[in-house]
Amino acid sequence: MLRVAIDGPSGTGKSTIAKATAVRFGLEYIDTGAMYRALGLKARRTGVDEFNEDAVREMLGITSIDFNGGATMLDGEDVSGLIRTNEISMAASNISKLAIVRAKVDEVSRHLAATKDVVMEGRDIGTTVIPDAEVKIFMTASPEIRAERRYKQLLEAGKEADYDQILKEVQERDYQDSHREVSPLRQADDAVFLDTSNLNIEEVVDAVADIIMDKTGRRA
Predict the structure, then answer these.
(1) Cβ distance 8 to 170 under 8 Å?
(2) What domains sit in the chain, N to C, each tagged with a CATH number?
(3) Tens of pLDDT along the chain (220 residues)?
(4) What is the pTM of this model?
(5) Is 74 helix (H, G, I), strand (E, B) or coil?
(6) Largest Cα–Cα distance in the chain?
(7) Whose CA is closest to 218, among 115, 7, 208, 113?
(8) CA distance 126 to 106
(9) Distance between CA 24 and CA 186 in Å, rounded?
């Protein structure tokens, strides 16, 4: 069994790195953050107060989340392209503070991790979801670097972007994620710290591969 847990703040490229790692080592990629984003999207769409536990509990009762060929499915709809905006990022951060939401996502995640070799990324994978994972990595980058990356992504996509506003949102998200009462963002004691500020995607994937091989002896 090989379970790779990659944790870290928003905008560090965890999804991209986890996907590439999954391909290199033949693992199943599980994007737990996408589950929270999908729930945040549904809350915004339906006008559910993200801080109202009763309202969110009712929403959860009529919501299904699944993965299909790498796509994030919300109630049977592929929402992969709708959940990566700054607005939905904040909605995900808000709704993830609720214990009932985290319990639901953790339940699904643990089931997947118990049945196959996986690489899973999020905020509390190595600390809460699969604390006995064979490999744990805490991936980060400076807020300025993460804001710059997001700024460039938006411009390349032909969208308007304000660097200062993006940096503010990154810093707000970091504070929210690290100060929430339920499963706050933190580095697991036995996780390997990996700063990607000055690394490109290929270099980060190589670094993760080296960590996996060092911890398990398994080669890509």
Answers:
(1) no
(2) 3-216 (3.40.50.300)
(3) 999 999 999 889 998 999 999 999 999 898 888 999 999 999 999 999 999 999 999 999 999 988 777 789 999 999 999 998 889 999 998 998 899 998 989 888 898 889 889 999 988 899 999 999 999 999 999 999 999 999 999 999 999 999 999 999 999 999 998 998 878 899 999 999 999 999 999 999 999 999 999 999 998 8
(4) 0.79
(5) strand
(6) 49
(7) 208
(8) 12
(9) 27
The total of other beta-carbon atoms located within 10 Å of residue 16's CB is 13
CA distance 7 to 138: 5
Polymer length of the chain: 220
Q: Are 24 and 218 in contact (CB under 8 A)?
A: no
Query: What letter would DSSP give residue 124?
Result: S
Structure tokens at 86: 């700054």
Closest CA to 101 of 52, 147, 139, 68: 52
Check: CB of residue 172 under 8 Å from CB of residue 43.
Answer: no
Instruction: Name the nearest CA neighbour of 3 among 91, 179, 126, 148.
Output: 126
